[in-house]
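Contributing new records

If you add data, match the layout below exactly. Sequence lines come first and carry their own label; structure lines follow with theirs. Keep one chain per record. Anything else will be rejected by the validation script.
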Amino acid sequence: MNVSPSPALPQRERGTQARNASFFDVRKLAAFPPLLAALLLTANAHAGLFSDDEAHAKIIELQKQNTQVQGKLEAMEKTSRNLHIDALAQIEAIKSEMTKLRGQMEEQSHAIETTQKRQRDLYVDTDTRLRQLEESKAPPPPVVVEDAKAAKAKKVTGGKSNAIPEPDMANNDNPANEGKAYDAAFSQFKAGNYPGSLTAFQSFIQTWPKSPLAASAQYWIGNSHFNLKDYNAAISSQQALISQYPKSPKVPDAMLNIATCQQNLGDGEAAKKSLEDLVAKYPLSDAGEKAKRRLEALK
């Protein structure tokens, strides 16, 4: 009787065979080192796929950030260029405005010079008329009357007098010389020779202290100091006019000149007080009208 083999090996035998097969496989792989290394590298490569994806994502994120930074830099450069252009435009506008201001200043300077010339001419005309008026009121020169004896002697000698003639009046007492001296001093002032006019007017007052033109001469002494920019001396000269010739028509002009000198010296309060005094005492004078306008400008 024949016995058929078992269709399946016992469990213990199957486990032993599996272990033997695995040991055999490892020993086979160990016999081929290059093949084992290749398999290990392939396994590591599959294991690192997730890390490469994260690095790629980081790179993309950094690229986005770099793009944003570049955009900001470009915006800043554009803004800087715009600011530079605006600054250049503002500089050009300022230069243009300065040019206009210089032109206006030159025009104002010319206008001031023209006004000053007109004022000088007006003073000349007014002073000339005043001098003519004062001269017309001056007493006529004395007339020398020959006595009877002189007339008789003159008749006896055929019309020629043997009497000793009266000496001519001194030059200082001659009204013609007085007028010529004043005109000469005033011509110096009109010509702009203020040192010369100052000396000439001072000499005039010393020579003819009681002349009807003495007050005018004193005024032009102060005005000569003013044009020489010696404002303190001008103030003193005009104050002398006011005190020595209080009824002179030149007093309002002297007060106005004092206020101008004080203003040029930087004493605004004193100048304002002088203008107020002028308006109070001589409101209808030409100098008083000018003082009113100056006071309005100070408000």
